[in-house]
Each structure stands twice: as C-alpha cells, then as structure tokens.
Amino acid sequence: MPEGPELHLASLYINRMCQGVVFTGAVRKSEVSKSPDVPFTCEAYSITATSRGKEVMLTLTPAGGDGKRRGVKGEAAKPMDIVFRFGMSGLFKMTSKDELPKHAHLCFYTKEKPQRVMSFVDTRRFGTWHPNGTWQAARGPCVLFEYQRFRQNVLSHLSDHAFDRPICEVLLNQKYFNGIGNYLRAEILYRLNIPPFECARTVLTGLDLEDVCETQQQISDAKKCVKQETPDLLRLCHLVPLEVVSLGGKGYDPEKADYSDFKAWLQCYYVDGMKSVRDHNGRTMWFTGNPGPMAPKESKSPKARKRVKKEEDHDYTDKKKAARSRSGSSTKKTIKKETVAKTFKKEKEAELMRAEKAQKSKALVHEKNVSERRKGNRRAVVPAEGSESKCSKYTVFYPYFVKNVLIHVFQAHRWRTGE
Predict the structure, then answer these.
(1) Deepest of 17, 302, 344, 404, by most Cβ within 10 A of its Cβ?
(2) 250 catalytic, yes or no?
C-alpha cells in the first residue's frame, strides 16, 4: 500500500511530467469506477500536484490563471482541486493515448499531437478521488512536512484512548501519524528495538514536546543528526520517510518500476530471518525479538521466509523418531477422518445418481412398451443392461415365462397319458 513517501514522490512525478504541458477537454472517468465524475471542462489548462500524508491534491488551472478562460461549453472555467487517496495500488502514469493502461480510471488528455494522457491507475480499485475536495479533516499533520505540529499533536493527546493500544497499531492511526504505513512502522520500531506490542502510551511518555530536528533541514543533515545521537520514535517517524524520498525514482518509478534500491534499503519489513505476526486489525507486523506484552495470543503468522534452503536431516536418533512418530500419527488421524467423511459423501452421491438413473430408465421402457402395444406388437422392450434391477427385468418377461411353462406342462401331460 502506498504510504506518505510514495504519495509525495507521486506528486513530484506529476509535476515533472506535466511541467509546460497543456491539457484540454473534459476529464474522463472509466465506466467501472464508482468514484464521482469530475465536472471540469476547459480548452486549455495545466496540472500541478502537492501531497500531505497519505493524500495527493491535483490542481487544474485554466490557461492564464485568472479564471476568465472560457470552457468548451462557453462557461467560465474555474480552477479545481481534486484530492486523491491511493488505496492499495493507486499511482499516476503519463502514457500515449494508444498505450493507455488497462486500469486507468481517471484520465487527463494533453492538447499536443500525438496526444498523451496523465491517468490515475488503480488495479484493485480501492483508491478514491474527490472533486473540489480539501485535505481530510480527520487526518493529523503530515509526518514529512509538518513535523513540529505532528509531534505536538501526538504528545498533547496521550490521554486519548487510542494510545491504550499497542504502539504498532497506533502508528497506523492517521489521526496522529498521517503518512505512516505498514512497512514504515516495521522499520521505525526495528531501529529503536521497541517491541511492537508494547503499550503506545508507555513508549511515548517522557518524550520532549519540542525537538531540534526541523522539517527544513536537508536530508544529509538529518542523517548526520541520526549518527550523532539516537533519535526518539517521533523523530524517526519524520526521518525514515525522508530516507525513502531521498531514494528518488527508485522508491516510486511508474516508468521503469525499478525497486531494487528500495528493497536493499529495507532492514526489517519482509526481510529474511525476521518474525511476523498479525496484529489485532489483521495487518502483518514484521519484527525481531520479543513481540511485547500486548501481542495477540491466537494470531496466525504467515509462513516464515528463509533465504537458505533447508538441508536434509539424516539424524535418525530415537528421540527424533519418537517426535516424528507422534507428529505423524496425529497427521494420519486427521487425514483418516477427512478421508472417511469424503468417502461417505461420495458413496451417498453415487447412490442418489444410480436411483435417479434407474427411475428415468424405467419410465423410458414403460413409454416404449405402451407405444409398441398401440402398434399391435405385443413384444416388450428390453431395458438397457444395468439401467434397472433384476426384478424389473423379470417383470417385463413374466407373461412369456408363464406361457412357456404352460406349454411344457401340457406336452408332459400328453406324453404321460399317451394321447
């Protein structure tokens, strides 16, 4: 899921691709999208973007910038802000009109020839946009560009019930940590060696309300600051996203899709040898060491990732044999129960199918017998082999059987009496 750094890199990508480009016409939405239409039409307009936390705002400005430029329908075109939330897979792409992505759900067309398109692409369709929208009021200050406000907002609300939860879950609360997502929380807690399921209030209590690390500092200076002293949790919520931004297009590059540097940058999230467990909201938390006192008791962890292939174990000691026999016996019992249940179900279905087939065959034979008798042919129709039971076959041949018996009895009587 795109997080604060990815949305900021998306805004930089839009500004770079749209610089000096003139767009025209209506903003077109795909037929399958459930997001609202964008009521904007203009002969010539420009696009700029800015980000805040997990939101990106596109500003459509008519050429001239004074709002007096006439739209296609003769109405005065006014600037419009469109707020995007990327969901699970949202991103922006600039392509030619002929190479429009399959899952492009909102398109802005250029005035040039050949025509190009800036499109919002969302494969899973969890992303949304809001025409004439504003930053969502329920979201807190941005961890990237409103660091001091973000820090004060968190530390002044520690009495809130939200901070009764584990720190790993509170870090995803956008009311206080706007821009932090799943991989960022894992990296931040890993660097400070904080158990992910420690109470958030316990972790944050005692931090200073003011911090010397300012948002306006260069990233290089921020890295020096990290080396000189160990930053606290809230400062890392600002510095770690800046490190992702410093990767440039390697963190968000829809043209080349090269994420090798980003994968090399990760220290904990989805890294071999790390532990993982699902939190109370069902999100996977990556960590090392002790999970903490508030860890879910019955959570199912995804399969552990291993870099080295498991070597064949040829140790056949009595201890291992006993362990294997116990595990094997329990497995066999489970498999046996499942096999018996499946066999019984199959036999029942087969029995029903046989009864249905016999009933259909019997009805067919009866119809043929009736038709033959109407034609004057007293000979009965023999049913197909296996379609009826033996009793039904004898029922069909019964009149002929009686006739033959009577003939034999009559002939025997004549032989005995000499007639």
Answers:
(1) 17
(2) no
